[in-house]
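Review form for a predicted model. The reviewer records the input and the model, then writes brief findings.
Reviewer: anonymous (R2)
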Amino acid sequence: MIIKRRKAGSMGLNLTSMIDVVFLLLIYFMVATEFKTAEESFPMDLPARDAGQTIMLDNEPLVIVVESAGDGQRDVRIQIEGPWDSVATVEELTQFLRSNKIDEFHVTGLFTDAHPVLIQPTENARWEHTLATYNAVARAKYTNITLDAPVTKLDVLQ
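Model under review:
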């Protein structure tokens, strides 16, 4: 009887499945990774500062007090709180706001279009006068307009 001897089996790893797993992990991490661009600096040309130009306004709202003087459409009194010239009509308010607005052509203005504007009607102010004032500010292309609750005449004077 002939006895066949088995050859000793060689031990090894199945590299094909290992390579598949490595490539799947590589693809997963490449897809799941968020690549960010490096921070960049942007050159900016700032205007030269004049010695006399020192006015800097903070974001205090421009308060416009509206009071009705009668029942007519033009019977409205408008007062802008602060050191501003007085305005008599809604049209003058629009002109005041446009002339003091900073835009691409009028760089000497005081307010940006996002400067907060607070419209404060008095107790006797009619809705149409308050709305006309709001529309005047919107016509001047201001975007941050707020209507406040009605105030008494004594609150306005203080």
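Findings: The longest strand covers residues 62-68.
Further findings: DSSP finds four helices and four strands in the chain.
Recommendation: see findings above.
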